[in-house]
Each structure stands twice: as C-alpha cells, then as structure tokens.
Write a structure and sequence with these properties.
With 286 residues, this protein is mainly α. It has helices at residues 7-53, 57-69, 82-122, 127-130, 139-174, 178-194, 200-226, 245-252, and strands at 231-236, 256-257, 278-283. The protein folds into 2 domains: 13-66 and 81-229, no CATH class; 230-286, no CATH class. A 3-stranded antiparallel sheet has the order 2-1-3. The longest helix has 47 residues, at 7-53.
C-alpha cells in the first residue's frame, strides 16, 4: 500500500509545476517580438539572395532546355553546382549577421536575467548578502548572450544553407526553369518567416528564449554555489504521451548533484527545439 500523499508532497508538486508555467508564460510573452525580428531577417535574406541569384538566369534556362532535348539519352550536361551559388549565400548571411545577432543577443540576455532572477527568488537567495549582482549588466550574462547569439546565428544560417542546397539540387536534377527556381527560393524564405501555424521564425524564437531562460537558471545557480550554497537539480517533463523515453528517464532519476549529468548525458534541458522540459533546483538536503 502506498503511503498517504502528504501536504508537503502536494506543495512540492505544485511548486514544481509552477516553475514550468512561469517559464512558459515568459516565453509566450516574449516570443512574438523576437519572432517578428527573425521573420524580418529571413525575408531580407530571401530578397538579397534571389537578387544575387539572378546572375544564373541564362545558364539555368539553357541547362533546362538542354536537359529537355537530351532526356533519356544519358548524355552528360553542365549544370549549376553548390560552388556557384554558395558564395552568394555566404555574402547574404554575412550581410544580415550583425542585425540578426543583435536581435538574438538582446532577447537572450533578457531571458537569462529573468530566468536567473526567478531562481534566486524561488530559493529565497538574497543577492546583497551573497554578493551577487544579477541584472542586465552582469558580465557573465552579457558575455554569454553575445557569444551564444553569434553561435546560434551561424547554426540557423547553416540550416538555411541545407534547405537551399536541397532545393537547388532538385531543381538542377529536374531541369527547372530559372523563373520556377527563383520563385521556389523566394517562397522558401517566406515560408521560413510566416508559413503555417508554426513557422520556422516562431520555432527559433521559442527555442532561443526557452534555452536562455534555462541557461539563466543554471548561471544563477552557479553563482549561488560560488557564494557557498550547495544545490541539487531535477529534470521535469510535461508528463504527456509525447515525452521521449530518454527524458522520462532523466525525470525518474530524481534529484541529483548540480554538476552531475542526467542518464541521457545532458546537463540540462532543452536538448533541442522539440524539448519542452525544464530544470528544478533546490538547496541540497541532508
């Protein structure tokens, strides 16, 4: 027979659930402006790249006509390769990198400070007593936001390059006309910005804010540990049927030492854009 569910258990469960709710509310509130900024970058990239890509119009149309004439006879033909258009994409990414990084950096820093502040409040940690300055001028937070934003922009642009490579390769193999390919490229960037109920711009915004919030939690926890507190952490899933088995195992591990890794090998969530988990922290129990 299971022991009775105590008031302490109920309170702990409530506080755990409230931690995830607080993060999700913050992300929901801040996602829209960041999504707009990301969408604007995607649209600008689409304009810049398609304009530069126009230099290949005659070549693409000639290849398409040649492919139509030689269909089925196995003859080799010259065609557009990645070495032709890749410099154009690299120039496009470089032209939008500074503004893109700035937008992400601002959002990441705010989420870091908010998330860390929530942790300090939940642990009833007095910043003055512990010698912690947790605000937008925190040097560790500002350095993290700057470096992480630049790294994430590079990753996002690399993913965009993969999409372009797939689309252009298909067009070359199938002998698309320039007009068809150019329209498809432009449409892909519009899709990134505003396509569907959950466009790529929104997925980027939600992930970056959630990840920064969790990073802020972790960073503030490290500051508390440096000030002399001993902390433990716990992985928390949303508890539905979509939770992946590895994350369920992480949750089942319960409270572990702050510097330990979870069974999956991760230090904290989110592990990727599809992860909805959060981290709980508490003072170490005897």
């Amino acid at each position: 027979m299971n022991p009775p569910y105590s008031f302490t258990d109920a309170l702990a469960a409530f506080l755990e659930a409230d931690t995830a709710v607080t993060r999700d509310r913050y992300v929901a509130k801040r996602a829209r402006p960041l999504q707009r900024a990301v969408a604007a970058t995607f649209r600008k990239q689409g304009r810049l790249f398609t304009q530069a890509f126009g230099q290949f119009k005659k070549r693409i149309d000639a290849d398409a006509a040649r492919l139509a004439r030689e269909a089925g006879n196995g003859r080799l033909r010259e065609s557009l390769s990645s070495s032709d258009w890749l410099p154009l994409w690299q120039s496009t990414a470089a032209a939008t990198s500074a503004a893109f990084s700035s937008d992400l950096e601002t959002a990441i820093l705010e989420a870091l400070i908010f998330g860390g502040g929530e942790l300090l409040t939940s642990l009833q940690a007095d910043e003055l007593d512990l010698g912690i300055s947790w605000n937008l001028q925190n040097p560790r937070a500002t350095a993290y936001a700057r470096m992480h934003a630049a790294r994430q922009v590079s990753r996002i642009d690399a993913t965009t390059q993969t999409y372009l490579n797939s689309l252009i390769s298909q067009a070359v193999d199938e002998g698309w006309s320039y007009d068809r390919l150019s329209a498809a490229i432009g449409g892909k960037f519009v899709e990134f910005a505003t396509g569907g109920d959950n466009p790529r711009s929104r997925r980027v915004a939600v992930y970056e804010l959630g990840d920064a919030y969790e990073a802020g939690n972790e960073m503030a926890a490290r500051a508390l540990i440096a000030a002399g507190l001993e902390l433990e952490k716990k992985w928390l899933t949303v508890g539905d049927d979509h939770v992946r088995p590895t994350h369920r195992e992480n949750q089942n591990a319960g409270w572990i030492a702050f510097d330990d890794t979870y069974p999956s090998g991760d230090n904290r969530p989110p592990t990727d854009s599809g992860c909805r988990c959060t981290t709980l922290y508490r003072r170490k129990r005897d």
